[in-house]
Amino acid sequence: MDTNYGGYRGSSNLKKANTIIPWSEERIAELQRCAADPINFAENYMQVVHVDRGLEQIRLYPYQREIIQSVHETNAVVAECARQSGKALPLDTPIPTPNGWTTMGDLQPGDRLFDENGKPTTVKSISKTFYNHDCYKITFDDGTSVKADAEHLWVVERANPSKRSIKKKQLTTEQLFESEFIKEDSRGKFVSRWKIALAGAVEYEPQEIKIDPYLLGVWLGDGHTDCGRITCHIDDLPFYKEQFSYKFSDNAETRNPNVYTGTLYGLVTELKEYDLIGSKYIPRCYQYNSIDVRLALLQGLMDSDGTVEKNGRNCLCFSYSKNSKLIEGAHELLLGLGLKVQRKEYPSTNSVRLYFNCPRSKFDVFRLPRKLEKQQIDNPRKYHTNYRYIRNIERIDSVPTKCIEVSNDSHLFLCSRYFIPTHNTTAITAIILHYVIFNHHKNVAILANKAEVSREILARIKLAYEHLPQWLQQGVVEWNKGSIVLENGSRIMATATSSNNIRGFAVNMLFIDEAAFIENWDEFFTSVYPTISSGETTKLILVSTVNGLNHFHKVTQLARQKKNRFKLISVTWKDVPGRDEKWRERTLADMNYDYEKFAQEYENEYLGSSGTLITGSKLKQLVEGIELPSHDVLGLKVYEQYKKGDEYVMVCDVSRGKGIDYSAFQLINISKMPYRQAAVFRNNMITPIEFTEIINRFGRMYGDCAVMIEVNDIGAQVADLLFFDYEYENMLFTATQGSRGKTVTTSLRKTTDKGVRTTLPVKNIGCSILKLLIEQDQLLLYDENTIHELATFSQKGKSYEAEVGKHDDLVMCLVLFAWLTEQQYFKMLTDLNTLMGIREREQKELEDELLPIGFVDRGIAENRSLDLELNLHKDENWQIAD
Fold first, then answer.
1. Which of 554, 571, 588 marks a domain boundary?
2. Residues 6+ apart with CB under 8 A from 9
3. Do 33 and 165 sit in the same domain of this protein?
4. What is the CATH classification number for the domain harbouring 113?
5. 399, 496: one domain
6. Residue 642 has what pLDDT?
7. How far, CA to CA in Å, does 718 sit from each of 160, 707, 725, 755?
8. Are residues 190 and 317 in the same domain?
């Protein structure tokens, strides 16, 4: 029988360094088996905490065993994992945004919401409407409630956590419903089992206002509805005079010497501008303003209509019949500042009271000294007032729902009028634990988009380590929030995926979580690669859900073709126990039988992002058709040499050359359909002057081809330089001609633009024609950057643009080219009618399908050689030789 051989810093679950443990032959043999077989180690000795059953032995799925064994046997593993759960909410669920309120049904990709800390986050994608889902209503202890479907994720904590319980859990609504969410305590009272942390104060953008927010709060509480007059205690008058810049009238109150009633000269004029005379409410520009403005408004309300009760609670009291709009606004104001509010109505006095706890350690809710001194310094009931406790979960009739994905790492966002936050590491835990226990002097780095996420993974590793038998543990030397060190010299460090976080740190195993979502991957990986390339046995593990045609897609595709050192493991819905064809049919029905979306979400198909201009299946074909350019230098990629007699057109998009957006051009062979990509340029450091030089030289090399420049911003400067300084004659200009809108011309007049302005009609027409051209194989693309931009060129509102953090400079060149193809000038230049050509092609394909045997010749004889020499100088002012 084992005894306790000493614990690290008082913890009996952790073995101290240099602790001596007696060994038997059986134990030595078992230790050797665990060292040789990580799956045996995990399944026999690792424990996890289950929601209902508590601590239990780990049970690995087959794909988890494959991941563990692969990492044990090889040095590089990449695992693509399908999405396993949604965040579906009813379409009428109110959603707070930095611009006010919207609903779940009205959200679009790119819209801004709030995360659980009150900071803005972005909607990345939105599902189609789900029907016939199991739905529930969750009610909290403050009387608030929210509806959600069965698979909606919630981040919850135990209402009364033990020292060994995991602090936070992600549970679905259905899991919460099936758990014992209300239980009887030792006193025979029924109490909540789960709680959800309150959101932080939401951060709206500052807005211009005319009335000081503190003064407005005082007037809303103690002001006269029909004028700029206020009533207050006579002792408070000197304080108000110090706060306000208005001149006060003499006291109009003669009956009570302790009361002041007077006018603030000029205030009524400003109150009228906000339509406040005769109707008290909180104007929108105050309700959705900065935290400082909203707090000042609350302080004015509390100094006039607020108090501190004997139990320490703060209270705002209103007359219900006169101030219903003000009550609703004050309630929202408190909730938006991250406070838990209880609203109680008192019919006998026709009043409503808003109760909340807010200690001065959070912020002052009063300014008047006599009231401020009564506000609590700290919150003795912080566990109660900083959380909402689940009091009831009940099934309700199914309602239409949608899922959204947001860009923050926690994937949480705020929903409902009450600002409620809503929302495969088992194998990795086993891998890392086994590696550091049975290897000496090994450094493991866990990287995620945010340090908090990587530390959460480390916390799970630490929990599993604590529940290992001590004879399997190494003695603990350090046990910190972001790292642990064992007596065998092995170390685990958890940090964010910053390019500098592990620079200079020799890593023996690098685990990167959600690798597909790391921005600036090339810069990041260039920085971390030296830390993992110095040793021949260094292990690299990438795990992620798919995220379109980005760097992670490239890694997995090369692994699938066995062209890199990674072993690929693909986990789809079929690998998740409990999911069968019946589940697939039900899920497809919920997705309106959107097979492409299902393939992307659950079958690891890299079909681009949600709502892309080009369909996912076509994007996949485009990726398979990517070719290597014959020349690739400093952003210039050439795919086809100039062919005498062929016609070309160059469309240019100009940036300021400061490392943000790209200066870009697309050079297209337009001699016949299908049109072909001949060359592209994309560089975000080149200046507009240097870009003009490149346009001039490359345009002349391709037979003085037609050049069209986007002139919304700095492009006008480039167009002027090209026309006047370089005397480039074959430039395309545009003019507005009544109902015909923008038209292309080659003649320059006073009202003519030396290029094209991307107006909404131009963009919409261009997007529509570009979609037809690409999906009907009438524009052949070979460039990797162009195709990757198309994969994140998604719908926003009634138009399309790059997703957050992505670029669309090359795509916008194609959009303008597509618009150009329907201009009369283009039809005269090429003798081609683009839309007519597409229709004729569709008709021919239909006829071929009706024949017993049809042959379609899609071959294009192309000469990929290019007698082109690039004279590149060592400085940035490189040139292209004639």
1. 571
2. 479
3. no
4. 2.170.16.10
5. no
6. 94
7. 66, 12, 10, 10
8. no
**Same structural domain, 738 and 638:** yes
The reply to whether 876 falls in a domain is: no
The region, left, alpha or beta by phi > 0 then psi within -120 to 50, assigned to residue 727 is: left
Instruction: Of 503, 502, 399, give the one whose Cα is nearest residue 152.
Output: 399
Rounded Cα gap, residues 449 and 512, in angstroms: 9
Domain of residue 826, residue span: 628-850
Question: How far, in Å, CA of 430 to CA of 725, rounded?
Answer: 67
**Residues 355 and 457 both lie in one domain:** no
* pLDDT tens digits along 674-727: 999 999 999 988 999 999 999 999 999 999 999 999 998 889 999 999 999 999
Average pLDDT, the chain: 82
> What is the structure's pLDDT at 856?
37
Here the CATH number for the domain that contains residue 233 is: 3.10.28.10
Task: Say which amino acid occupies 601.
Answer: E
DSSP 8-state symbol, 517 = G
Name the E strands within 514-647.
539-544, 567-571, 631-633, 636-638
On whether residue 877 sits in a domain, the answer given is no
Alpha-carbon gap, residue 319 to 352, rounded angstroms: 6
Task: Please check whether residues 236 and 143 belong to one and the same domain.
Answer: no
CB neighbourhood size of 441 (10 A):
11
Nearest to 696 by CA among 472, 880, 499: 880
**2, 471 Cβ separation under 8 angstroms:** yes
| Burial class of residue 169 in the structure, from the number of CB atoms within 10 Å of its CB (0-12 exposed, 13-18 middle, 19+ buried) | middle
Q: Rounded to whole angstroms, how far apart are CA atoms 778 and 816?
A: 16
In the block, residue with structure tokens 């997705």: 591
Q: Cα–Cα distance between 367 and 354 in angstroms, integer?
A: 19
Most confident of 52-66, 131-145, 594-608, 859-873: 131-145
User: Among the options 80, 270, 514, 693, which is catalytic?
Assistant: 514
CATH code at position 661: 3.30.420.240
Say if 803 falls within a structural domain. yes
686 assigned to some structural domain: yes
Q: Note the pLDDT of residue 873.
A: 35
pLDDT score of 877 more than 50: no
In this predicted structure, what is the pLDDT of residue 862? 35
Indicate if 514 belongs to the active site. Answer: yes
Q: Are residues 703 and 840 in the same domain?
A: yes
